[in-house]
RNA sequence: GCGAGGGUAGCCAAGCUCGGUCAAAGGCGACAGACUCAAGAUCUGUUCUCGUAGGGGUUCCCCGGUUCAAAUCCGGGCCCUCGCACCA
């Protein structure tokens, strides 16, 4: 029977949600498990990669449910920011890529018109995430609790959170320099280009602006990353072809490029253009350097880019290859020089001054490196590489030399800050921030660095908060282990973090100053709590406007009296108390699962905000980090559209096949490339499982056999192993056992002659539920097929029972299986077509000896004692062999750990086991099989192999 | 630069925390056999190498060390990936 995955999925999803088995209700005396995955941002369609973490979370939750927990596994979306706004704008201007993606995902023209409104975009994707993705994958999620960060109740919750942070002294204010679009305010610069359309790799560079005095009182202003090189200044570069301007900055008049004025005006007060300054007119004049007071000549250089820094450059030819080559060219180019009246002597005067001792270089690294590489022109593209090399070594390893006045002997890194500090103080320098490359906002405007004088921060540098968070993290269950260790460092490095932003954004108004909107990370750290309260909102028991500070103080912090809070909020006491009770039941959060991108941002602030705001009993208990599913050629890009729409993939491969793919393809903690063929092979595996179970069900009932006990024992030991895996959320090993190893168990059972319908059914009643966490739809279908009702998803798994008898049954089969391997090996190597196989179990005395050794296994084995004791009961003909064998066993035992010795030497009646398996061996190898004990006088042993027999390893003779 | 992670057989990927159960799970691919008119699917077996007796040899990026014993521990090297903050 072929499986129709799609209809099977629809059938069971409807059945589950109709029966509301996904809804979370507290049950005070029952264990609970509360898990979330970090909700996705609403910036477009998700791709198949995103479903990995979500699916693993669902499998964990389903398993918890099946081990007797009440589970809470809510979902929501993060709509804060400008993702939805920019999406709406792209729809509005018919951006081809956006329209294509919408079309490819089956969006109608009519719907598309609606999507010019950001709030509609959020609604649209909320609906898709919820229905197409999460319900479509059969998640055991309580849909009543769905929330989104722009819902009124959510924003009330965030207001409360900010008030608590303020009250706890964790909000601070100070100036901040942020990348911003002139129209849309601050934007994020990141490689995935969420806010921007170009320049995702740009960095904010911290320039020091140095002021060089001209005789007429104006100042030439150069921006540099290396202020400490001021000691090596020889000249100043001005581009003669650029029109500079005189800008009034405070009390001073600066000469800078026109674009620089715009940038400066975003970072300094009262910047105003008051005149123009022709670059050419400055040539050959002198200006006075800050700090050193040295007068240096002004030379022409076409390399000064008006878009970079101030458009003017100071020249340090000793350590800047471009400056050195600039001088070399200028000296050579007589025509250019004479045009500006610059004599050769003036150029000669500007020869390099050694200022930094750089390991591996002589006094003038820039000169040295350009000579070595044979660079003698500013057009040489290797100049950049040369600069990088000299700068890197010089900055990190260099030491300031004698020419550097009071800084002589300083490490360059330290000198930089000190030199800058001194010049800033004396008014010879200012700070200036600029981007390393051009960045464009999604709206098309240029992104520049803007000073925000009164930016609010959450103070994650607070030592007390850090300490408590780090200590708490040590008590948490954090996976993988590497992150458990590293989160300590991450918290340690954390400093204050901007938590509100200006501009046109979706999000919560900052309650302390409503001009600001709470920033996208600050509003998504404490939110698991809100899944408790959101249900009461969606069921109409509380309205957003009632969710005041007193309300949350009461239900989340246990503050205030019911009477006061009822009158302050208008919420009835019984409702208040049931919310509070539910919060106390579900909290703390047991696991927060999220992608590896959260390791240095979301997870630490998630933890620290809990510690900052909540009482210790409500701090989170666990974190799981998942790595990515990538496209075969690289990252599946969210902003640029996923490879295939999730519903299409679900339709093509089947949801359970995808779920098994996510669960089994690799450890959660490595990246995995998505491959259609892999997913298909998992689908095939599920189909085979389906038909194999069909075979099992139609096995001709042969009644009870010895194998039934083995099968039952096997199921129990599998169960025990599986519980162990899930204890550490190892869904992969769990899937491997359930979907691959356990099928092998059934096959072995049949191969060994098992065939009891009752035993098979009994085992299936365990196997099928074990599949349910990973492939719930198929498991339900199978459950129904074996006549069970109503849901496999609500079955409570038994606890594993491990008995001595079961262990013996398993050990017996291990013996048989390893004998099959050994015999096959012998036949393969010898190319014998066997006519008879003789198996000889180890003699009694060897078993006795091993048993004695095992009994004393915790201690060191006394070989002499072992020999003596064995001698007492051993038959006379064995006595010569005893010492050798005893030594072998002792040596073997000394190498293996204690429980290992026990396991390999579990008590098995070998002769009996072999006897029973005789017919099986005979069928396997198509010949007569005889079994003896190695000390049976009646044994048939032409080649004398009996002496090779050892416990666990019977002797074999083939002919 | 700062920080983190990784390099395992044809490919993917377990194992490494707690050294011996490891020639190293599982999957994919390949090969052979069964079934079939055939193909596909499925099932069985093989898949480092040598071997007419269950064994030997050489392997887990490279070099060195610790140890009776190292894929696993330590030191050094080469290469790769990721994060670095207002993107969740």
- Summarize the amount of helix as a percent range: 40-55%
CATH architecture of the domain at 204-435: Alpha-Beta Complex
CATH class category label of the domain at 204-435: Alpha Beta
Rg for CA atoms:
38 Å
Oligomer type: single chain
List the helices and strands and how they pair.
Elements: H1 5-19, E1 32-37, H2 51-65, E2 70-72, E3 76-77, H3 83-92, H4 96-104, H5 109-114, H6 118-135, E4 147-148, H7 152-167, E5 171-181, E6 185-186, E7 196-198, E8 204-213, E9 219-224, E10 235-238, E11 243-249, E12 252-257, H8 258-267, E13 271-278, H9 279-282, E14 286-288, E15 295-300, E16 313-315, H10 321-332, H11 334-339, H12 344-349, E17 356-357, H13 365-373, H14 383-397, E18 399-400, H15 412-425, E19 429-435, E20 440-441, E21 447-458, H16 463-475, E22 477-479, H17 481-493, E23 497-498, E24 500-501, E25 517-518, H18 530-538, H19 549-557, H20 562-569, H21 573-586, E26 591-595, H22 602-613, E27 622-626, E28 629-630, H23 646-653, H24 655-664, E29 672-673, H25 676-697, H26 706-727, H27 731-751, H28 757-771, H29 776-785, H30 804-830, E30 836-841, H31 844-855, H32 863-873, H33 882-895, H34 898-904, H35 910-925, E31 928-933, E32 955-958
Parallel strand pairs: 1-2, 1-26, 3-4, 9-12, 10-15, 22-27, 26-27, 28-29, 30-31
Antiparallel strand pairs: 5-6, 5-21, 7-20, 8-9, 8-19, 10-16, 11-12, 11-13, 14-15, 17-18, 21-23, 24-25, 30-32
The protein binds one RNA strand of 88 nucleotides through strand 5, helix 14, helix 17, strand 23 and strand 24.
């Amino acid at each position: 029977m072929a499986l129709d995955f799609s209809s099977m999925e629809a059938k069971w999803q409807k059945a589950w949600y109709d029966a509301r088995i996904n809804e979370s209700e507290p049950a005070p005396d029952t264990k609970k498990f509360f898990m979330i995955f970090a909700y996705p941002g609403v910036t477009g369609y998700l791709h198949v990669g995103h479903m990995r973490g979500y699916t693993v979370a669902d499998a964990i939750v389903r398993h918890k449910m099946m081990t007797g927990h009440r589970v809470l596994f809510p979902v929501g979306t993060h709509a804060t920011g400008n993702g939805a706004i920019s999406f709406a704008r792209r729809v509005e201007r018919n951006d081809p890529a956006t329209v294509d993606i919408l079309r490819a995902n089956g969006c109608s023209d009519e719907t598309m018109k609606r999507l010019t409104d950001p709030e509609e975009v959020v609604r649209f994707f909320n609906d898709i995430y919820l229905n197409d993705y999460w319900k479509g994958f059969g998640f055991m999620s309580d849909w009543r609790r769905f929330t989104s960060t722009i819902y009124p109740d959510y924003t009330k919750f965030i207001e409360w959170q900010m008030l608590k942070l303020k009250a706890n002294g964790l909000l601070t204010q100070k100036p901040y320099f942020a990348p911003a679009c002139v129209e849309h305010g601050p934007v994020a610069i990141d490689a995935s280009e969420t806010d921007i359309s170009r320049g995702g790799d740009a960095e904010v560079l911290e320039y020091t602006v140095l002021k060089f005095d001209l005789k007429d009182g104006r100042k030439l202003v150069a921006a540099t990353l290396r202020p400490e090189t001021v000691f090596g200044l020889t000249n100043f570069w001005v581009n003669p072809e650029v029109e500079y301007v005189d800008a009034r900055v405070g009390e001073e008049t600066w000469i800078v490029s026109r674009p620089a004025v715009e940038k400066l005006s975003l970072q300094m007060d009262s910047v105003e253009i008051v005149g123009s300054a022709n670059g050419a007119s400055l040539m050959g004049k002198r200006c006075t350097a800050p700090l050193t007071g040295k007068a240096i000549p002004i030379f022409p250089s076409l390399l000064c880019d008006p878009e970079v820094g101030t458009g003017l450059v100071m020249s340090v030819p000793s350590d800047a290859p471009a400056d050195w080559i600039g001088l070399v060219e200028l000296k050579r180019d007589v025509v250019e020089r004479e045009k500006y009246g610059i004599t050769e002597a003036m150029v000669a005067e500007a020869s390099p001054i050694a200022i930094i001792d750089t390991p591996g270089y002589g006094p003038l690294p820039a000169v040295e490196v350009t000579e070595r590489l044979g660079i003698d022109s500013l057009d040489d593209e290797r100049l950049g590489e040369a600069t990088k090399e000299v700068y890197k070594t010089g900055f990190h390893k260099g030491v300031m030399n004698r020419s550097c006045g009071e800084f002589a002997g300083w490490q360059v890194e330290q000198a930089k800050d000190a030199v800058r500090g001194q010049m800033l103080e004396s008014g010879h320098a200012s700070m200036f921030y600029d981007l390393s490359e051009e960045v464009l906002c999604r709206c098309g405007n240029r992104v520049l660095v803007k000073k925000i004088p009164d930016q609010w921060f959450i103070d994650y540098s607070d030592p007390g908060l850090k300490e408590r968070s780090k200590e708490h993290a040590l008590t948490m269950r954090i996976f993988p282990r590497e992150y458990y260790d590293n989160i300590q460092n991450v918290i340690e490095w954390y400093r204050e973090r901007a938590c509100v932003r200006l501009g046109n954004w979706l999000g919560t108004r900052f309650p302390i100053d409503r001009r600001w909107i709470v920033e996208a990370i600050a509003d998504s750290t404490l939110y698991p709590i809100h899944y408790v309260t959101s249900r009461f909102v969606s069921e109409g028991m509380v309205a957003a406007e009632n969710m005041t500070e007193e309300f949350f103080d009461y239900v989340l912090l246990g503050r205030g009296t019911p009477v006061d809070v009822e009158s302050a909020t208008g919420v009835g006491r019984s409702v208040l108390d049931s919310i509070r009770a539910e919060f106390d039941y579900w909290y703390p959060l047991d696991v927060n699962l999220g992608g590896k991108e959260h390791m240095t941002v979301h997870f630490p602030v998630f933890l620290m905000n809990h510690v900052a705001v909540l009482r210790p009993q409500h701090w989170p208990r666990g974190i799981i980090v998942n790595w990515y599913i990538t496209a075969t050629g690289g990252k599946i890009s969210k902003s640029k559209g996923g490879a295939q729409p999730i519903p299409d993939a679900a339709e093509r491969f089947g949801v359970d096949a995808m779920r098994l793919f996510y669960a089994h393809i690799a450890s959660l903690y490595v990246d995995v490339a998505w491959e259609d063929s892999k997913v298909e092979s998992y689908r095939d595996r599920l189909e085979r499982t389906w038909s194999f179970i069909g075979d099992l069900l139609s096995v001709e009932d042969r009644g009870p056999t010895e194998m039934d006990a083995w099968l039952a024992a096997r199921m129990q030991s599998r169960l025990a192993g599986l519980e162990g895996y899930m204890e550490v959320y190892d869904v992969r090993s769990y899937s491997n056992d359930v979907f691959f190893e356990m099928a092998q168990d059934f096959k072995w059972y049949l191969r060994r002659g098992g065939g009891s319908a009752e035993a098979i059914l009994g085992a299936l009643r365990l196997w099928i539920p074990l599949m349910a966490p990973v492939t719930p739809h198929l498991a339900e279908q199978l459950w129904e097929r074996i006549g069970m009702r109503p849901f496999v998803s609500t079955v409570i798994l038994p606890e594993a029972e491990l008995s001595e008898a079961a262990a013996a049954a398993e050990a017996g089969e291990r013996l048989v299986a390893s004998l099959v391997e050994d015999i096959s090996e012998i036949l393969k190597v010898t190319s014998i077509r066997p006519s008879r196989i003789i198996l000889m179990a180890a003699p009694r005395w060897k078993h006795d000896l091993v048993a004695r050794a095992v009994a004393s296994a915790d201690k060191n084995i006394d070989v002499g004692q072992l020999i003596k004791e064995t001698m007492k009961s051993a038959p006379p003909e064995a006595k010569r062999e005893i010492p050798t064998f005893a030594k072998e066993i002792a040596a073997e035992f000394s190498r293996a750990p204690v429980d290992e010795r026990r396991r390999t030497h579990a008590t098995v009646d070998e002769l009996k086991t072999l006897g029973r398996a005789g017919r099986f061996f005979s069928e396997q190898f198509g010949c007569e099989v005889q079994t003896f004990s190695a000390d049976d006088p009646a044994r048939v042993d032409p080649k004398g192999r009996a002496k090779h027999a050892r416990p666990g390893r019977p002797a074999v003779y083939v002919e």
